[in-house]
Amino acid sequence: MIDETKLIEKMKAGNQHAIRMIVERYQHHVFKVTYSVVRDQEIAEDLAQEAFIKMLDALPTYQHQGFKTWLSRIALHKAIDHQRQKKRKREELHTFESFHPVDKKLNVEEEVMANDQIAMIQKRIKQMPAKFQLVVHAYYFEELSYRQIADRYRLEETTVKTRLYRARKWMKENWKEEDFR
Hints:
By secondary structure, this protein is mainly α. The protein has helices at 4-12, 16-38, 41-58, 67-96, 108-125, 130-141, 146-153, 157-174.
């Protein structure tokens, strides 16, 4: 078995074989860490893969103080971030569930009312600070992902997330539920 320190140095130098060996050595452990948080095999596998990608990005900052612990921390943070995003999505759905009609088989009257409500919401969105308007419209009405919005408006994905978070906060502070009835 090759010494871990040598493998890490080879990985830092870009050696693909060393990367494969580290992944093979720790893939089960990293999976267990992510699975312990998300409790879904498929998601845990994806997060484990993301953890290894993050490991490669963060490798230059590694200080040679317990590689397995360092890698475990990366995997744990990936899983926790995923859970936070999932929770945030549920909160967004709850916040905006009244904005999107759920029943696809609306009668004509309900459809007209729903369209009126959407028009009113779009009018209210135009009253928001300009930097929030684009991301809110793209996310909630065009149903684009953070990445798609970031690409479209040449923003960082984190900027899109931040603007949506601040836009929701702004809405909670400036909109009243009775304004939409």
